Amino acid sequence: MKFKGLFLVAAILVSAGLLGLELKLLVDGWTAAQFLDQENKQQEIAKNHLEGEIEGLRISKARIEALYTRLSDTMIASRGTSSLHINSTPTAPLTGDGSSFEAAGITGFTQAGLIVQPVRVPNGEMSIIYEAGTAGLEFHRLVPLLAEQENADLFLYFDKVLLSRPPNIPPFTTEPTYLETRLTIRMLTGK
Amino acid sequence: MKNLFLSPEKIVLRSYQRELVFRAVGLIVLVTGLLQLPILFFAFTTWQNYQTLTDKKVQLVAAANELQTKLVAFKDTRQKLSQIQQWEPIIRGRLPCSAVLAAIEQTVPTDAVLEKIGIESSRYQALPVAGGTYRVPELYTLSIQGSLKFGHAEELEAFAKELKKHLPAGSQVLRSRLLEGAEGLVPFHLVYSIMPAGNYSTLGVQRIADPDRL
Lengths: 191, 214
Hints:
The structure holds 2 protein chains of 2 kinds.
Chain A: H1 2-74, H2 107-111, E1 115-119, E2 127-137, H3 139-152, E3 157-164, E4 179-188
Antiparallel strand pairs in A: 1-2, 2-4, 3-4
Chain B: H1 8-18, H2 20-72, H3 75-92, H4 97-107, E1 112-129, E2 132-149, H5 155-166, E3 172-178, E4 185-194
Antiparallel strand pairs in B: 1-2, 2-4, 3-4
Helix pairs in contact in B: 1-2, 4-5
């Protein structure tokens, strides 16, 4: 009787053990396949992304390079001396010590007759800052000048623009009105 | 004569055939044996699937390597694009002041005269650029002081609304006030807050990335 009981238990254990082992192997295999499938899907997404990026770069190469050239060309190279010699008639010279340190970006303003004064740049900022002023430009000449400078240098910021009609000019006058103009100009510089 | 003799082998055999325990063991063996069929089937399909996936992985790795090689040819363009992307917030945050002034010129009523226009940036955010940082304003304040001819004071509201239409989206009228005046003129003060959101199409400004139409 004892033998029969042992025999039955042993048969159950062997059978269950065998089936359990087989199931474990099956589950392991299935998990490994799923993991591989997931890896492949990620790899495929990365591949499609890379393909898209390459295609995008290939198609847009000319535009990217043109835009880069346009943007980088407008950046002021350094705060060193400029090779520009401003000598046009309405031009007022730069005042202060910075007269020989004129950056290319400011030429348009000085040529238009604005008096330009460099301002201290906060530490760590890659910029040059100027305060500019004039009382010799009319509104319809000033706006194109500002637009031209903004288009020429895409990193040029007007931190402050202040236009005011001189007190001695009456309202609704038909005479030319030369505005009192004060500008704070900031430009990005390269290394 | 009936043979009553039973050999021990026969007794054991009969015991295996008829006793419940042995029948149960037989059933277990039978079931286990039968279960081997689906197990083998699933094992085979899993192995086949695994092989297919392994082959696919090899192909994908080869394709990725090939693409990486292709990408090397665009290294320069990628760097330039990355630099443009770094500059993008600086360009987006710049309010085209000339376009704002032009918008004022276009919208100012004929019965109004302007005395002062001020555009001032504030709330700066320092963005990293090569070699340091560059401050980008998050807010601009546009202030307009002027006068309307007596009897045309109601035109201020229309002017404020019309100018707001031209300003970038999100611009707000902070102050629109008529002041006490003299000499047949009604002074006014208009103040707007402008968020430089990067889209300045309402000001008539063309996108920088757009090809030049000329």
